[in-house]
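Holo prediction. Input below; ligand is S-adenosylmethionine.
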Amino acid sequence: MSDNAAYDWDVFDSDDYVARNYARLSPADRQILEQMGEFFRRTEPRPGMRGVDVGAGANLYPALGMLPFCEQITFLEHSSSNLDWLKRQTAGYSPIWDAYWDVLAVHAQYRRLADPRAALAERAAVRQADLLAGADTGAPYDIGTMFFVAESFSTSVAEFRLALRRFCELLRPGAPFAVAFMENSRGYAVGGRNYPAVAVDAAEVSAALGHLTTELDVARIESGDAPLRDGYTGMLLALGRVK
Ligand SMILES: C[S@@+](CC[C@H](N)C(=O)[O-])C[C@H]1O[C@@H](n2cnc3c(N)ncnc32)[C@H](O)[C@@H]1O
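Structure of the complex:
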């Protein structure tokens, strides 16, 4: 059994996870939104363009970053509780996500979308898949995100690297991506259960993504206030294009 498979992802408490991490927009998530929006806004929308958010869990803001450019966004998830949460939230998302959209909407490319809530409901496809297996993913996609998954779903460095390889395999050559990481995480608790992590830094992320990508930029995101999630030193955001 792989290390990732040793955890019972189906009982992941989506509502507790949102309450802990996203009920209030943190300075760190704001910086990530600003940098992702600045990067993605240069994307040329093409007819039929499809995006993917991998290990989407209980977070909508990576998908909001891709929304104006995509006719369809697939939320790939492994956990049945998170799949249920995604089906409910994509059908009509909670007002907490409005603050996240507002950060993106400083750019005309996002503002042009008058009703992002209705657009997401129309364009979202929620799909069950195990990233490590790499099957039934609906690939290839034209743009992608994966936030707090590769380093936060296993204690294995080999699985961290495999997750990044699988993520890049989901995308067409040249596709832009944003991948976020907890820096030096020691794991996290959700709904009274402990979940795993691999402690990674910018050098480890660059080494794992460097040979798979072009135009890679790995930025350190300072928390700016008391960390929302215990046991980590900051966040990292990798932007670039798949080779
Ligand atoms: C720390 S959460 C991150 C959730 C969300 N992307 C975010 O930004 O907050 C890790 C996510 O990885 C998902 N996950 C765990 N194992 C997975 C696997 N083998 N394939 C795909 N997703 C997986 C979990 O269900 C959970 O949603």
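Residues 27-40 form the longest helix (14 residues). That is the main takeaway for now.
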